[in-house]
Amino acid sequence: MDPPFNETYKTLLYKQIKNTENSVPQTPFSFHVTAVVEEVELPLIDVSRLINGAKKEREKCKQDIASASREWGFFQVINHGISMDVLEKMRQEQIRVFREPFDKKSKSEKFSTGSYRWGTPSATCVRQLSWSEAFHVPMTDISDNKYFTTLSSTMEKFASESEALAYSLAEVLAEKSGRKSSFFKKTCVRNTCYLRMNRYPPCPNPSEVYGLMPHTDSDFLTILYQDQVGGLQLIKDNRWIAVKPNPRALIINIGDLFQAWSNGMYKSVEHRVMTNPTVERFSTAYFLCPSYDAVIECSGDCPAYRNFSFGEFRQQVQEDVKKLGYKVGLPRFINDIY
């Protein structure tokens, strides 16, 4: 049932790897497992106020969204427009797909070639290994309904409603940063936006291996629906904290592109998923991304980042992961002029 993690990564998992200049690249300090001080609840925002609230309530809601994006880079939303019925169906259909044998999943005809991924092929040490499997499904694959199944119809409902929510939140954040809210409808296209269905199998070495290694998201916004197992952690005030699951809420986080576009006003925060020795975890995420040729122009008189296209950003990330085993991200695009 599980991907062959033990078989494929036995060298990383069970043999001592010497970290020398000529073998394993140095990994960032945040990659090393550190004690979590506490479990916290993310800022909780009732986004129904954006539509149904009076003028003052709408404005307060917008301020809450912007404030959480500045201070946390993460927040939760309730009354978000996606019914619990759709979310539960999404979870059940996702579990059913991941229950298929590895050989069938890796050659799945439900999605386009290359959609299924597991582990971290580029890992050169155990800290760069993610103990998880996933289906990356472009929005165009979902909307085409090439293979009409219960899963595809549920995914279409979840994806379209997540898309609407993402645009709504992005427009609020644009307004509060003094930028044009129409930017996202013009630049974010369905062939670059996608869903990622995740499964984190039980791990025999939970203190050594991440479910998903520390990273920031390479998009504008991410919308996450997770089960109640827990495991998501993020950096706040220079320490790792655990996110307490809320069955009523979706988690929203700011991506690298929004941090650059807002000149650092909104924070793309490093986060990770911890493994569990006995319980598997499931989640589904929607990623709001622009077209590859869309240019991310940093705002303000003293832009912290130079202009770059989404395609250029992705290429740099891929090159760094191939060379170093991990993503560098926005530091590659800091504006040297200032």
Automatic annotation (TrEMBL):
Enzyme Commission designation: 1.14.11.13
Root EC class: oxidoreductase
Cited Pfam families: 2OG-FeII_Oxy, DIOX_N
Gene Ontology molecular function: gibberellin 2-beta-dioxygenase activity; metal ion binding
UniProt key word Cell membrane: no
Keyword Metal-binding included in the entry's annotation: yes
Reactions accelerated catalytically: gibberellin A1 + 2-oxoglutarate + O2 = gibberellin A8 + succinate + CO2
Keywords: Dioxygenase, Iron, Metal-binding, Oxidoreductase
GO BP annotations listed: gibberellin metabolic process
Lineage top rank: taxon: Eukaryota
Domain called Fe2OG dioxygenase: residue spans: 191-290
Family: Belongs to the iron/ascorbate-dependent oxidoreductase family. GA2OX subfamily.
Identification of the protein by name: gibberellin 2beta-dioxygenase
Organism: Brassica campestris (Field mustard)
